[in-house]
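Input.
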Amino acid sequence: MSFFRKLFKPFLTVLPYIFRSGQTVSYPTERPIFAERYRGRHKLYLDRCISCNTCARVCPCKSIVLVEVEGMEGKYPQIDFNTCSLCGYCVEFCPKNALEFTDFVEFSEYDRSNLVYSPEQLTEIPDLKEVLPMLKRRTEIYLTKTEIKFRKVKDV
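Output.
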């Protein structure tokens, strides 16, 4: 009797999970709506930045360097996303809230040099429809007592 119990115990363990709904999002056509505090790509507000160098000093990865911008006084942050860990220190310690996180995570490149974002690039967040033309719907993530589920929020 113990032989059959050992044989069927793994199947009995897996059986409840077979009938549950999927816990993934089909990414290019669906994209989750991230939480408000999600750490995606940075956005820079040039008018708020006072060139204090705090963001570069607190960056543990040394991913931020201050560079000059044409037509403006002072130096502004340039972020190297090759080394940035998205820790959030630069956003947290900015005295004028010139840096903030967005929910934009689609910034993969074939060439590593394109992951160094100048201050001008950091001020503009591309339109999501340009980056993901096949995007059809946005989904919201919610938790139940036993699992993560997704519900369709809106069509794009």
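The CA atoms of residues 20 and 146 lie 10 Å apart.
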